[in-house]
Amino acid sequence: MYKEDTVFYPQDEMTTVLLPVTSGCSYNKCVFCSMYKDVKYCEVPLHDIEIELLHCYTYTEKIFLTGADPLTIGFKKMKLLLELIHKHLPYCACVASYASIRSISGYTVEELSILHDLGLRLLYIGFETGRDDVLRLMNKSHSANEAIEQAKKLNDARLSFNSILMYGIAGKDEGVKNAVITAKMLNQFISNKIITMNLTVFFGTELNNMIKKGDFVPPHRKERLLEIHTLVEYLEPKQSTIFDTTHPTNIIKIKGILPQDKNLLLNKIENYIQEK
Ligand code: SF4
């Protein structure tokens, strides 16, 4: 049951009220992911969600929906859920959630726009990379073109999202190429924030098995830093976008606004590479 689940949430939502919506991951096949391996996917019934809401402080201003990808519950249930939140927490101005390219593809622009107007204001999406060969290797369920298409849909619906990337994911000697292609993907739509994570190999994952068999060689630290540097170099956002590497997995913790802080960020990475 969802009440015993380990709850995952973005570091920006550390102080946000959490509302359980799904348990486990409906996909659960990304080779690097260990988060929900032993959890059976299920949706939390609306009745249970309403009970959770009844225990919330009436003046709550922000809610984070928990679960790997709450948008899998579909438009009708998501609409009912947002209406319930509004009914019990009338001062809540922002509902945030994880989402996947796969789940967003099940919604029309009009539906996403309705959800936005009902209070869904921020999604966290794991794009990971813009390279199709790497997406396939990592067994992500989308291609780069699908990611661009869904991201543009969200832009049309005015639904903001943070794009999460993972450097190191392309393997040894592939980091710079990965950064160039990923930046080119990101340049095609508007992200609220670009968040990087460093590839971390967890025990029991398929990626760990691939490394043991020699099917994947993780890049060294310096190559990962060069990958971040190349990413910043090639990012040309259409409007001001926060670039944030402060997630705990990162080798270097920097944060700034692109494009205006590009040189500052690049200098910080260069200095860090020289010091190490
Ligand atoms: S990375 Fe996300 S979509 Fe992939 S298995 Fe993990 S929770 Fe599911």
Q: β content, as a range? A: 15-25%
Q: Provide the gyration radius in Å.
A: 19 Å
Low-confidence stretches: none
Q: Span from first to last CA? A: 46 Å
* Small molecules bound: iron/sulfur cluster
Instruction: Summarize the helix and strand pattern as letters.
Output: EEEHEHEHHEHHEHEHHEEH
Q: Overall pLDDT, averaged?
A: 96
Strand order of the largest sheet: 1-4-5-6-7-8-9-10
CATH topology: TIM Barrel
Residues in helix, % = 25-40%
Given helix and strand content, the structural type is: alpha/beta
Number of strands: 10
Shape: globular
The biggest sheet, with number of strands, parallel, antiparallel or mixed sense and barrel status, is: 8 strands, mixed
CATH class: Alpha Beta
The CATH superfamily label reads: Aldolase class I
Which architecture would the CATH scheme give at its second level? Alpha-Beta Barrel
Please give the count of helices: 10
What is the domain tally?
1
Structure, explained:
This protein is an alpha/beta fold and 276 residues long. It has a single domain, classed as Alpha-Beta Barrel (TIM Barrel). 37% of the residues lie in helices and 18% in strands. The chain contains ten helices and ten strands. An eight-stranded mixed sheet has the order 1-4-5-6-7-8-9-10. A two-stranded antiparallel sheet has the order 2-3. β7, α7 and β8 (193-198) form a beta-alpha-beta unit. α2 (75-88) packs parallel to α4 (109-117), α7 (175-186) packs parallel to α9 and α9 (221-234) runs antiparallel to α10 (262-275). The chain starts with 16 loop residues before the first strand and ends with a helix.
